[in-house]
Write a structure and sequence with these properties.
Elements (H helix, E strand, L loop, with lengths): L3 H52 L7 H9 L8 E7 L4 E4 L13 H7 L4 E8 L4 E11 L5 E10 L1 H51 L14 H36 L3 E6 L4 E4 L1 H6 L9 H7 L19 E7 L2 E11 L5 E10 L1 H36 L6 H32 L8 E4 H18 L3 E4 L8 E4 L1 H17 L6 E8 L3 E8 L21 H6 L6 H11 L3 E7 L3 E9 L15
Parallel strand pairs: 12-14
Antiparallel strand pairs: 1-2, 1-5, 3-4, 4-5, 6-7, 6-10, 8-9, 9-10, 11-13, 14-15, 15-17, 16-17
Helix pairs in contact: 1-4, 4-5, 8-9, 9-13, 10-11, 11-13
Length: 600
């Protein structure tokens, strides 16, 4: 009975059964009442005729003769048995027996008639013959109002009972047949209702399991048909919504895992609910399996203010910076809320600010270096100027020495400003190059001639090894690359001791021409080598400054080579020498231009 189908069938059967029982009972009772009324009418009519024809039609002298004639009347042809009973209750005539003794009747019907009232009984049971009789008794009254005789008539009720029994059987058969038909009709009726509901249930289960492409056939326009249409609409909209949600989730997952920032989401219990691979890489972990408390304790972070609001009612976002190995990580903690405005968890966004931190440090160092480089000549100029103002100008030789020093310091500041302006133009992409074909052997030969005197002054050997292909060329701005190789060569001469050997040679591979300048000087340590192209960086600061360097030459040279789609590299071993290499990309003829822009 858990199924609504069987409940409907049971209700339908119960309804039909009750209707049939009530109807059958009403029919049986109506038939019985009709038969009894009919029998009563027949008995009344029979009793009245007997009273008129026998009791009242004879006088005292002839009454006995009338009784004898009445007794000789046979009741075999009639269903009614007649009897005449005296006022003493004795049967004096009967159609059932022609001669005395006549049967005696002492039932309630006779007693009522003897008392002067008409009596009727539709169910008198004869205990001897086990026959049911319908009895009627009518008193015959005297002039004085006393009972003279009683006419008693009875009819056998067996035929009526048989008729009622047959009717009852017919009604029972009709009830059973009606119940069978009711079962069939109820099953069909219930099927029309529960069939679509069952289909909807099965489709709903499949829908709940994740298969959203469900559709129910609509067979009617009634409430069930409307329910099926609503289900189809719901499934369609749900499929669209879930599809959009899935696409948005995939989009967010793709964004999350392709972000350059690390993202970790903690739920209200402090457990990790989402995290991308960048976060694990930033924290240098193979797997993120810590809680929020473990995370904050490991990096000594305080989250006491988490979840509070600022003056505008916005959630406070906390930021911390902490080191991870050689990196610096900035962590932003932001709470997120549920529909009841309660904190549901915390999202932590991690940013690798190592480069930014290094740039800040380099910027600070750059400002300090510029300030230091400018302060020294300015201090010298000011001190010598004040000395001249206080009388030293009167001594010509001293004044000339002071003015030469002031001039040299002014030149030094001029060179510094020039180099800074060059770097500023490189940073702002304002430098243009005049690309032409530059013969490699001619180019390096000119450089050797320019620096030959400097090398000879230190008794150094400046060795030139020409390239095997005398027609080999690179596409470059001749003045710019000449500035680069001059810087490299003069550095090799400056920082190499007397008697050192400086070698200039050319090599190539599939994609590059490489012009190298190798010296046998002091070399550069492994710690300093990665930083030699930084601005104002000097390996030996005191010695470099004494030699007049600004610390910007290699930075400018690197910018020039990168502007040629090439590169400038250094190889060195401390105490054994340094090799600087200019890399020129082959096949750059498409860059050749006709115009020439002066470099300022």
């Amino acid at each position: 009975m858990k199924s609504i189908k069987w409940r409907l069938i049971a209700i339908y059967l119960g309804l039909v059964f009750i209707v049939m029982i009530v109807t059958g009972s009403f029919i049986l009772l109506s038939m019985k009442s009709t038969e009894i009324d009919k029998a009563k009418s027949q008995l009344e009519l029979y009793a009245e005729k007997v009273s008129e024809q026998v009791v009242e039609s004879y006088d005292e002298a002839d009454f006995q003769t009338g009784l004898e004639q009445f007794s000789r009347t046979s009741s075999s042809d009639s269903q009614i048995q007649g009897n005449i009973i005296s006022e003493t209750g004795e049967t004096v005539a009967s159609t059932t027996v022609s001669q005395p003794p006549f049967p005696s009747y002492n039932n309630s019907v006779v007693a009522m008639a003897l008392s002067g009232e008409t009596g009727f009984d539709d169910s008198r049971k004869d205990l001897e013959s086990d026959v049911t009789w319908i009895c009627y008794a009518m008193p015959a009254m005297t002039i004085n109002g006393t009972v003279k005789y009683v006419v008693y008539a009875q009819m056998n009720a067996s035929s009526m009972q048989e008729s009622l029994a047959q009717t009852t059987q017919t009604i029972i058969v009709a009830i059973l047949l009606a119940l069978v038909l009711a079962v069939i009709m109820a099953y069909v009726f219930a099927k029309t209702i529960t069939g679509p509901i069952h289909q909807l249930t099965e489709k709903a289960k499949i829908l709940a399991e994740g298969d959203l492409k469900q559709n129910v056939e609509v067979h009617s326009n009634d409430e069930i048909g409307q329910l099926a249409e609503s289900f189809n609409y719901m499934a369609s909209e749900l499929n669209k919504t879930v599809g959009e949600t899935f696409r948005e989730k995939n989009k967010l997952e793709a964004i999350l895992h392709n972000m350059t920032d690390g993202v970790i989401s903690f739920d209200r219990n402090g457990e990790i609910s989402h995290a991308n691979t960048v976060a694990a890489e930033m924290l240098e972990m193979d797997k993120l399996d810590f809680t929020l408390d473990m995370f904050t304790r490991k990096y000594a972070l305080e989250l006491d203010d988490n979840g509070k609001d600022d003056e505008e009612g916005q959630a406070v976002q906390l930021q911390y910076t902490f080191p991870v190995g050689e990196k610096y990580i900035n962590a932003s903690f932001s709470p997120y809320f549920n529909e009841t405005e309660e904190i549901e968890g915390i999202v932590v966004v991690l940013q690798d600010i190592t480069k930014q931190r290094k740039l800040d440090e380099m910027r600070k160092e750059f400002v300090a270096n510029v300030s230091h480089e400018m302060r020294t000549p300015l201090t010298t100029i000011k001190s010598y100027t004040e000395t001249l103002m206080f009388g030293a100008w009167e001594e010509k030789d001293v004044a000339m020495d002071f003015l030469n020093i002031i001039n040299n310091e002014a030149d030094r500041m001029s060179f510094l400003v020039r180099d800074l302006l060059q770097l500023s133009k490189f940073d702002s992409k304002q430098v243009t190059f005049k690309f032409i074909k530059v013969n490699i052997n001619e180019f390096i030969s000119d450089n050797v001639r320019q620096n030959k005197i400097l090398a000879d002054n230190k008794n150094q050997q400046l060795i030139l090894e020409l390239f095997h292909d005398n027609d080999a060329y690179v596409v470059a701005d001749r003045d710019r690359v000449n500035q680069v190789i001059n810087n490299i060569t003069t550095n090799a001469i400056k920082y190499s001791p007397e008697g050192a050997t400086i070698r200039i040679y050319v090599t190539e591979d599939k994609n590059w021409y490489k012009i190298s300048v190798a010296d046998t000087g002091m070399g550069i340590s492994k710690e300093d080598l990665p930083r030699i192209f930084e601005r104002f960086y000097r390996v030996d600061k005191a010695r470099s400054r004494a030699m007049g360097g600004t610390g910007l030459g290699l930075a400018i040279a690197k910018e020039i080579m990168e502007g040629h789609d090439g590169k400038l590299t250094a190889e060195s071993e401390y105490g054994k020498g340094t090799t600087m290499t200019m890399w020129f990309l082959k096949g750059q003829d498409n860059k050749i231009v006709e115009t020439d822009d002066d470099f300022e």
